[in-house]
Amino acid sequence: GGTLFLDEVSELSQKAQAKLLRVIETREFTRLGGNQVIRSDFRLVCATNKNLQEEVKKGNFREDLYHRISTFVITLPPLRERGEDIALLAEHFLSRFLKEYGKPPKYLSEGAKRLLETYQWKGNVRELKNLMERLAILHEGTQITEKDLRSLLGFDHEPEDINSLLMEKDLRKARQGFERLFIERKLREYGYDLKKTAEAIGIDLSNLYRKIRQYEIEVGI
């Protein structure tokens, strides 16, 4: 009995997928190095950050195994699409790690929370969790401010970039460089919501798409 949880099931090799399928179908397995067949009735829970249907089409994941494990599917949107959850999760992880490491209380300022909500979180919840652990261990003082987070999240390069643009002799290059920085900043500010960003800066959505591609700005589109 019990529950077997397989994280990142999409990363299993074809050989491992075949073995897993056999165990699911027969409810029998043999321990590594053993020869005794063991029968077990268990609940299987799998997780992945990939689209398994797409992996099946690409030939990376067995279709028969996919149908066996997809009886009940729960889809969680990426963290960047759950802006209202970010501050709550950040405070939860921070509190947890402060207790775990025996550190005094710390809290996130409102500015810090807003900054967290505009970040893209390519590493999803794991990235947020790791950031809060680092802050719990390394941050001095009781308040974590927006300024404290900027270097950790890669937001602190803008002043240097702007200064370098002011040194640019070519007006066209300087204008393009500033436009890229401006669009990147506004995208973060509006949580990478392209429609809201386009409306806020006064351009058509199609024009924003064009500029994102022109400047090779990463927004996951």
Strands, helices and their partners?
Blueprint: E1 3-6, H1 14-26, E2 28-30, E3 37-39, E4 43-46, H2 52-58, H3 63-69, H4 83-100, E5 107-108, H5 110-118, H6 124-138, E6 143-144, H7 146-153, H8 158-166, H9 171-189, H10 194-201, H11 205-214
Parallel strand pairs: 1-4, 5-6
Antiparallel strand pairs: 2-3
Helix pairs in contact: 4-5, 4-6, 5-7, 8-9, 9-10, 10-11
C-alpha end-to-end distance = 43 Å
Biggest sheet, spatial arrangement of strands: 1-4
- Written as H for each helix and E for each strand, in order along the chain, the element string is EHEEEHHHEHHEHHHHH
Report the principal-axis shape. Answer: extended
Question: What's the number of extended β-strand segments?
Answer: 6
Please identify the top-level CATH class of the largest domain. Answer: Mainly Alpha
Work out the radius of gyration.
Answer: 24 Å
Helical proportion, percent range: 55-70%
CATH topology of the largest domain: Helicase, Ruva Protein, domain 3
- Main pleated sheet: 2 strands, parallel
Low-confidence stretches: none
> What share of residues are in beta strands?
5-15%
The total domain count is: 3
Helix count? Answer: 11
Mean pLDDT: 88
CATH architecture identity of the largest domain: Orthogonal Bundle
Structural class per helix/strand content? Answer: mainly alpha
